[in-house]
Write a structure and sequence with these properties.
The chain is built from 7 helices and 7 strands. With 288 residues, it is α+β, with helices and mostly antiparallel strands. The longest helix is centred in the N-terminal third of the chain and has 85 residues, at 2-86. The chain folds into 2 domains: 1-122; 127-278, Heat Shock Protein 90. It is elongated. Strand 4 (189-200) and strand 5 (203-211) form a beta hairpin. Helix 1 runs antiparallel to helix 2.
């Protein structure tokens, strides 16, 4: 009996020792994981600070560059039409017209670049606004344009729908989306505004959809539509678009805590731009 108990005691002692060694290894592993997590968190913080610094420098660079370019462009815009009036040769007038169109395009690029830099660098001022009335304001603003391009506008938004938004920035967004939609409907068409509620962790957001009946887009085009300087015109010679309008829209929506995307089922099917903005009850920023 004594021998059996002695053997059992040794087995238990050996088992306890193995458990102790295992626990020590687990503790060592846990300490290493905790240290790795702390290092990772610190690196994330450092990278975030660096990214924010680079974004600020980018905005400052674009703003300075735009300002420097606008100085020599201004007299060209003023003087080229005067020079054109002094020219009698039709061929030379055509050449001056080419210069005028290109200078005006450069001016649009400068203005859109400064607009994008300004949105990136500044905070939005949020207030409760009636979205239905904002769309009606847009309709009145572009009434002549809509008629001249044979574009019908349907405002299907609930008349008492209140959202939290920076109204001026939201109107900027609608300006760019509407301009793109009109260009995609050269023979005229319909522009439809609708909304629905979507739930997020921070509360109910409003999903706005702007649907046109234009030429439509391919999958590749919808995937790249909000990239800076991207143009759906593959030749990139289309001078009425800078490729920055929808990038500006993306910045505005993200400043609202929302997201923006496009949907189209191919050529000839029209395009719908979707984006989300906070409802009147959402609280995700101290600015509210």
């Amino acid at each position: 009996m004594g021998t059996k108990y002695s053997i059992d005691a040794k087995k238990n002692a050996g088992k306890d020792e193995r458990i102790k060694v295992l626990e020590e290894k687990l503790n060592q592993t846990e300490n290493k994981l905790n240290e790795l997590n702390r290092n990772l968190e610190q690196k994330v913080i450092e990278r975030t600070v660096e990214i924010n610094r680079l974004l600020r420098n980018k905005s400052k660079f674009i703003d300075n560059l735009s300002h420097d370019l606008s100085t020599p462009i201004t007299p060209l815009i003023s003087l080229l039409p005067i020079i054109k009036e002094e020219i009698t040769k039709p061929k030379t007038k055509e050449l001056v017209d080419i210069c005028i169109r290109n200078v005006e395009y450069i001016k649009r690029v400068i203005n859109n670049s400064r607009e994008l830099a300004d949105i990136t660098a500044t905070d939005l001022i949020f207030k409760k606004e009636n979205l239905y009335e904002i769309i009606n304001e847009l309709k009145k603003k572009y009434d002549v344009v809509f008629k001249s391009y044979n574009t019908k506008v349907q405002n299907n938004i609930q008349q008492d729908l209140i959202v939290k938004t920076d109204k001026n920035r939201l109107l900027q967004l609608f300006d760019h989306v509407t301009s793109n939609a009109i260009n995609s409907m050269p023979e005229g068409g319909t522009l439809t505004f609708e909304t629905k509620n979507v739930k997020k962790d921070s509360g109910v957001f409003i999903q706005v959809s702007i649907k046109d009946t234009g030429v439509g887009l391919t999958r590749e085009q919808t995937d790249r539509l909000f990239d800076e300087f991207y143009k759906t015109d593959d030749t990139r010679h289309k001078l009425d678009s800078t490729g920055l309008g929808l990038s500006i829209c993306k910045q505005i929506v993200e400043k609202h805590g929302g997201k923006i995307w496009a949907d189209s089922h191919g050529k000839g099917t029209g395009t719908t731009i979707y984006f989300t903005i906070p409802s009147k009850d959402v609280v995700f920023d101290r600015s509210f």
